[in-house]
Amino acid sequence: SLEPTQIRIRGERFNGHLYRVDVLLPAEEGESELFQATAFAPNSTEEEKWGNLPSFLGMQNCLDRVRFAFDPGESKFYFGPFT
Predict the structure, then answer these.
(1) C-alpha distances out from residue 20 to 6, 8, 25, 40, 59, Å
(2) pTM for the full model?
(3) Could you give the CA distance from residue 41 to residue 38 in angstroms, rounded to a whole number?
(4) Which site among 3, 30, 44, 61 is 20 to 30 Å from 76 CA-CA?
């Protein structure tokens, strides 16, 4: 891990660690995009408190590494290299 940290989601604080991970956005058309991002993993003692909270991609240190756009009408996610 990079470092222990604490985050707040929906008013709850969670203890865990930050990690550098490879993220692959698979493409249905064109080229897939592979990049590194920072991920938060809660401590195992936080599992019950985490409950059914979803996993999510954050803007800072993740999606800010790739150009992207959403088309909610078509339920599509477009992306490309950040150049």
Answers:
(1) 16, 20, 16, 9, 15
(2) 0.71
(3) 10
(4) 61
